[in-house]
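pasting for ref
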Amino acid sequence: MWRNNSTHLIVFVKQSSEEMLGPVFSCSGVQSLDRPFEKVGEYATETADFNLYRLRQNVTSDNIVMVTDHTKPVAAITSPANGTVIEAAREQGALRLDVTGTASDKESQVKMVEVFVGDFPYKPAKPKAHNDWSKWSYSDFVTSEGKKLIVARVTDNAGQMEWYPINVTVSFTDGGTKS
C-alpha cells in the first residue's frame, strides 16, 4: 500500500485490503477518524489490480503509517504431535481435543490464528493475551474415530496467510482415556 501525492492512496489487491485501511489511519494521531478515506475506483493493469481511495482533508503525511509486508507469518502446532493416536472411552461418546501452538510474523504482526479439525469451517483460536499470538490454544470435540486432519491457519495484519497441518488418529476404546 502506498500514498500518492497528498490526496490519494493506492491499495494493491491481494497485497492489502480496505479492511486494513482503518488500522493504518488509526496510527500516529488519527484516532478520531471513523472513515478517513472514500473509494474512488477499481483499476486493473496487465500485472496488478488496485483500488484508488481519496483521503479526507484532515489526513496528512504526518499521520499516515505505511504498511508493507513481504514475509508470510509462521505457525506451528505444538500439541498434539503429528501422528499421535489419541484414545478415549467409548461411553463418553466424544473426545475433547485440545490443540496448542505458536505463531509469529516479523513485519506486520499476527492478526489471528484459526483452526479446523477434520472439516471446514475454520474456527478462531485463543491468543496467549490480547494481540499476543506467540502461544495460542484451541479446543473442539471429536465424535468419530479415525484419522483427523488438524490445520492451523495464521493470518498477519497484511492479509498474508500460512497453514500448518498435522494428522492425528482418534480411537474410542472400552477402557479409560489415554493420549
